[in-house]
Amino acid sequence: MGLDRRVRILDRHVLKETAIATGAATGAFVFVMVAGNVLQQVAEALASGRVNAAQGLELIVLLFPGVIPYALPMGVLTGVLIAFGRMSSQHEITAMKASGLGLMRIARPALLFALGLAAMAAWLNLEIAPRANTEYRRLLVGSVKENPTSLITPGELNRQFKGLVIRAGSREGDVLKDFWLWRVDDRGKLIQSIQAAEARLDRVDKPDGEVFLRVTLKDAKMESRAGGEIDSFSKPASFASAGNTTMEFPATNLFNSSGSYEKKLRWLTTSELFSAMGSGWRLSPNASLAEIEQSKMEARKQFMAHLASAFSIFSLALLAVPLAMRVGRSETFVNAAIALGISLSYYILSSAAAWVKQPAFRPDILVWIPNLIVIGIAVRLIGRVERH
Known about the structure:
By secondary structure, the protein is an alpha+beta fold. It is built from ten helices and five strands.
């Protein structure tokens, strides 16, 4: 068997060991991160009725593009530590070195694998995750503009529509069962009480730009009192019933605010970040030159932070190779604990760099310092390992 063929077999072995360990570790970190969001946000949205089951599943899927770039650095670090720790403890690395291969040549498949994942993470950070995060927030706040029924939580009073108090006993799809609606005046006095077996809520856009809430009732009974005198017997109440009827109420303010969200700088795509770098981000009309420069720098810092975060996959993998040689442990738990400690230290350094706001201190460059520190430590450890 020729030397080149033996080297290719070793490369495939190193790549396979690294890929399997990295995949398992990354999957575990992704599961923990996604599960936390599902329990905290998605489950609450489903329970409150703001989203249906299909939308809840879509929310879970939309979590992955934003979570994967955060999980990959820890996953790759853990995977490389596990793979090279096992190969070191079983003397496979020693055998490879005896055949004339240096440590960096042995680690080349793992480092190229990490570099490819870094490129993928940069793409996710700059293109896919911003779009997924934006859509996630849009769905999470509830599709009020398209389906006002999503605002109503069965068994609870809803006062979000001005002048109305709404309650429903249950909901089946877009149909509210055992529906109650109370109209009140500006003083909060009850002027009308409506009970219906079923009701549907719809948004109606008028030609003049006004937006109304349309309530379609089935088997409705209404009691009205003029002037909000429901608590007085001085004036008789009027009663009415209808098999099917429709009522409309002004709701422009609610529909203009509900279901909206504030888009964050980290949710901008590459083109949007470049635009913000050139003209600023969410500046007031009378913004000063200092505020404009600050806004531009924040956009540049965010762009660089995305790239630095992705590159950390490679830098942490580079550190893990000599670290695994020095630790020489095959136990998954021990390597995972080491990886967690290193990752926490890295993220603390990254957060500290991100706290810098003044453009004069170039925070867009400072976000790269954690990577430079990691690479510096890795190079020093590699030199020590190669000498022994």
